[in-house]
Design brief:
Blueprint (H helix, E strand, L loop, with lengths): L9 H14 L4 E5 L2 E7 L5 H11 L5 E4 L1 H6 L8 E4 L2 H6 L3 H15 L4 E2 L2 H12 L5 E6 L2 H4 L7 E3 H13 L2 E9 L5 E8 L7 E6 L7 E7 L2 H5 L7 H14 L2 E7 L2 H4 L2 H12 L4 H7 L10 H9 L4 E5 L3 H9 L3 E6 L10 H11 L4 H10 L1
Parallel strand pairs: 1-7, 11-12, 11-13, 13-14
Antiparallel strand pairs: 1-2, 2-6, 3-4, 3-6, 4-5, 8-9, 9-10, 10-12
Helix pairs in contact: 1-8, 6-8, 8-14, 12-13
């Protein structure tokens, strides 16, 4: 496969450009074997865009492609992403993404026998939607002559390349810049900003003067606008960040990796959608899966690569989440031990923390003790 030092491989370039198109809410052409599928994310749709996309797909009518989790929430017995047929009237009735997803519920009883497992190209389109932090659902139809004759350039994405993209993004990581920053606590930290091939900017904050010849205390922290910046009581993110910073200072130094993985990898908009579902009674895990996501969509390959580039291959991990430990080990980092971060539980985040402990295996000794006392 053709590759260039300037452009990278054609397949990787195609995924990167396709991701940009999905972020811009434009259709892409996803190819797999002999299949060519025109796909459009449901996020940001309105009547005018639906009408134009439907015309571009003619004579075929677009199908709705959803993840197996979203399919199960709609009442389908699904073990993989599903393609759900829609009628022209269905598409005319919807005026936004929520309407399109909701109207399928009414159509399910009539069309369950017609729903079928999604193709490889359709599954790749779903993954592209996730990477763009859209809802994991797309409208899609087999590409016709109208699509190929379109006046606009439609980016082509190879389905196999989508599955390899996370590894390639980690390998593309470079150190972009760094500077010393005095902190409010009086400590000094060095901020090192990385860049990947798609414009992501994770940062490593080196607190104090850690000895990289020994296991280094490290905190992986996913960005949380609501908790880190505004002090939200719905989660424990801000409290964990501040506790981790204080703990690293007490230990003489360490590293915080600040990762752009808002909402356990869902993105800020989907995090707010999950919050709305939680307000309606779902816990944090069921809210994520009802939207069509995994409970946790985060990937720690880039975090592992960041640590390797800092010559920090042996660490003490500050976390309550065993998935972070497993992710770093798979990325080639030696985790010598783990330190818990036990933050206060309040009336607004108690249900959230209990769900993480009971259903995702997060380890909170103080919560376990409190629940034992209550029982």
């Amino acid at each position: 496969m053709a590759s260039s030092a300037l452009f990278g491989s054609r397949a990787q370039t195609g995924v990167s450009r396709g991701l940009g198109e999905f972020c811009g809410r434009r259709p892409v052409l996803v190819t797999a074997a002999k299949e060519a599928l025109l796909a459009l994310p449901v996020d940001g749709l309105d009547n005018a865009r639906i009408k134009e996309f439907t015309a571009l797909c003619a004579p075929a009518t677009p199908q709705l492609i959803v993840t197996e989790r979203r399919a199960r929430a709609l009442g389908l017995d699904a073990s993989m992403p599903m393609a759900i047929p829609l009628a022209a009237g269905d598409l005319a009735a919807g005026d936004d993404a929520s309407s399109i997803l909701a109207l399928v519920t009414d159509a399910i009883s009539k069309r369950v026998p017609m729903a079928r497992p999604a193709s490889l190209a359709a599954v790749a389109a779903i993954e592209l939607a996730k990477m763009s932090h859209s809802l994991p659902a797309v409208l899609a139809a087999g590409a016709t002559g109208r699509a190929f004759a379109c006046d606009e350039v439609i980016v082509e994405v190879d389905a196999d390349a989508v599955s390899r993209f996370a590894d390639e993004a980690a390998r593309s990581l470079i150190i972009s810049s760094g500077a010393s920053v005095p902190l409010h606590s009086g400590a000094r930290a060095r901020f090192i900003v990385f860049r990947d091939a798609i414009g992501g900017s994770p940062a490593a904050i080196i607190v104090g003067s850690p000895n990289f010849a020994n296991p280094v205390p490290v905190r992986l922290h996913s960005a949380c606008l609501t908790g880190d910046v505004f002090g939200s009581r719905r989660c424990d993110c801000g409290d964990q960040l501040r506790l981790a910073l204080a703990r690293l200072q007490d230990l003489g130094g360490g590293v915080i990796l600040y990762l752009p993985q808002e909402g356990r990898g869902l993105g800020l908009a989907n995090k707010m959608r999950a919050y709305q579902l939680q307000d309606e009674g779902l816990d944090t895990i069921d809210a994520n899966t009802t939207l069509g996501f995994h409970d946790d969509e985060r990937d720690y390959r880039i975090a592992g690569r960041m640590l390797q580039m800092l010559n920090c291959a042996r660490i003490v991990l500050l976390t309550n989440n065993p998935a972070k430990l497993d992710g770093l080990v798979k990325a080639g980092i030696e985790v010598i031990s783990r330190m818990q971060l036990e933050t206060p539980i309040n009336s607004d985040n108690r249900r959230y923390i209990v769900a993480k402990a009971a259903r995702s295996g997060h380890q909170f000794e103080h919560l376990t003790a409190a629940l034992a006392e209550r029982s």
